[in-house]
């Protein structure tokens, strides 16, 4: 056997597997081969999408289930033994794996990240691959986890899910890093994970393993929304069983349970005697998990901080998508640096989170509007004479025409895409949400007449709206389609099918902005949800330019007036919404509120109409496969990507000719951000893939498939074949003309009409001689089509 002739797979099965099995690794429970650990970034162009290449490791070795410890990159024997090391190291950084190996079947190269003495890499014979125990001991020593109790914590099994669901790699990282921190005695821990990445599922796995060891027996899970508590207890935490779990309600304390769920405002009060948490002794809980801890727990004055201070002896784990770091509030000061961070940008790059487009729209009054002298509003109040702008609209000044034009644009987008796409419109306050609902109902009167709840207001003061919240978030429920809100849907609500987010609110911070964007990041590929769109009327997406924002849109669109709405600064805070736990003062909109200031009455909000408002600016920019902004046209962008792959026209033709299957080359181009369908639509001509690339990238004449097919017929090269073979080739040429080159490369092409009517596949192949003769005839036909000598 010549090892050089073996494939990479043969090297794995004949040399690598026996070597690691001999070292004591269980191939069934500790070794996984060809592990895809990302889904591949979703690349969006127009309404089309594809996925980029997913990341795949040849081997991942686990000390125990979901505790990865080593990675092996395999190569065929024509390559050197250490050939794949750089790729393996890249993967090991992502997966946080300390031991890295490469092999070509002759030996192993071992890169030991725990070795700080200098000898990082060494070559090992096939007989000297280290055992699981050897690597695990090195790992524990490197991480100062050496006491029996600490080792028991980090080695505790994950929950065995009967459905086969296992944590994603970043969830494994988050859980394992947290348990290691607990094992080493760290009592305050924070995890930063983007919205939509499964923080609650991660928390369950952390709590399960700590509870199973008996190290943490009584646990408190704190959240800030009732919906989150029920959702958590009945969802991810259900394996614990209802007998040991309890939701604290109405400040009634029952100390007979082990796992408690509570709203922080349900445990605290401005009246000291109503502080229900003090009915527990300070050492009652061993572990407290604080969900969405950016919403207040880090503030010295917050109710959450009071609870955490009282239970100071418990280990405290904060979960957040958006840690607060300001001069007044700091998560890091309280919890320390995150033990693990998984950003929105990383989630999009990995293909676990949906990318997004941005449509930016500017109206004629956005830069400033000044009332005429003595202007009286709808309710008889004289409008104060000053210049009003975006920070004022719907906060201190409501312009009916601006609200109406926003509603028109939202409806225009939905009509052009999908009128049943789940949509959230974020407004400045409850009054604005109500007026926006009315405007949207008027714009969508046809659907509202049939379905009263097509558009609803979901705010803290509206019982009907709150009752519709479950229907809005339910994947199976079609209605409501549009929800207008101010604060209630910014965080914590799992809105899996939201495809359209409208920003008509002055966003207070990057934290709030990220929470709003998080409403759309869930992917539901089976239901057609692979990206979402943000329509921005408030310039809030300028936050994209800030370095602390960790994600970029796939497209930014600012159409000019009259163009279709569908895409080919510290902003002042808004009034709190009723029911928002962080803002106990309830903002109550009425026909204008009157307040007393210095003895004079002051109108809180003016309501004006009959003001001319129009759209003045609506631009298109793409974000490519690397997440970077592309300001040129789709054609220019595609040309650059094609030129990166092919140095010249000859280079492209050579690669095209050498490709056994053109479909594979087209797929490869898509993975590099060149979506031919979107490009074909942009060019406006139904060109073959070959001609589309030649025309766009190399300025060649744009020949249609009909032109190419006719050129082949004129050359009459078929005459060298038998009569039956000529009929087959003519039929294949007709098929190419109608459907393109990929259609004639299909293995089943001889089984479809009209070829199936000429005879069986075996009979048709026999007309050319043997199978290889038929395949050669197809290749010659392709060469004739593209006139390749």
How would you describe the overall organization of this protein?
- 34% of the residues lie in helices and 17% in strands.
- The chain is α/β, with parallel strands linked by helices and 789 residues long.
- The radius of gyration is 31 Å and the shape is flat.
- It has 26 helices and 30 strands.
- Strands 20-21-19-22-23-16-24-29-30 form a nine-stranded mixed beta sheet, sandwiched between helices. The protein has a seven-stranded parallel beta sheet with strand order 11-12-10-13-14-9-15. A six-stranded mixed beta sheet has the order 1-4-5-6-7-8.
Q: What distance separates the N and C termini?
A: 39 Å
Rg on CA atoms, Å: 31 Å
Can you give the mean pLDDT? 85
Low-pLDDT residue intervals, each spanning 5 or more residues: 296-301, 545-550, 569-600
Please describe the biggest sheet, giving its number of strands, its sense, and whether it closes into a barrel.
Answer: 9 strands, mixed
> How many helix segments?
26
Helicity, as a percent range: 25-40%
Question: TL;DR of this structure?
Answer:
With 789 residues, the protein is of the alpha/beta class. α17 crosses α21.
Q: What is the strand and helix layout of this fold?
A:
Elements: H1 8-22, E1 31-36, E2 42-45, E3 48-51, E4 56-64, E5 67-74, H2 85-95, E6 99-103, E7 107-112, E8 121-125, H3 132-142, H4 148-155, H5 169-183, E9 188-193, H6 199-213, E10 219-223, H7 226-234, E11 245-247, E12 259-263, H8 264-267, E13 287-290, H9 303-310, E14 315-320, H10 331-335, E15 340-342, H11 344-350, E16 356-360, E17 362-363, E18 397-399, H12 400-416, E19 422-427, H13 430-443, H14 445-450, E20 455-457, H15 463-473, E21 482-485, E22 498-504, H16 510-517, E23 532-536, E24 555-557, E25 594-597, E26 600-603, E27 606-608, E28 615-617, E29 620-623, E30 629-630, H17 634-645, H18 649-658, H19 662-671, H20 676-683, H21 689-698, H22 705-715, H23 723-739, H24 741-745, H25 761-766, H26 771-785
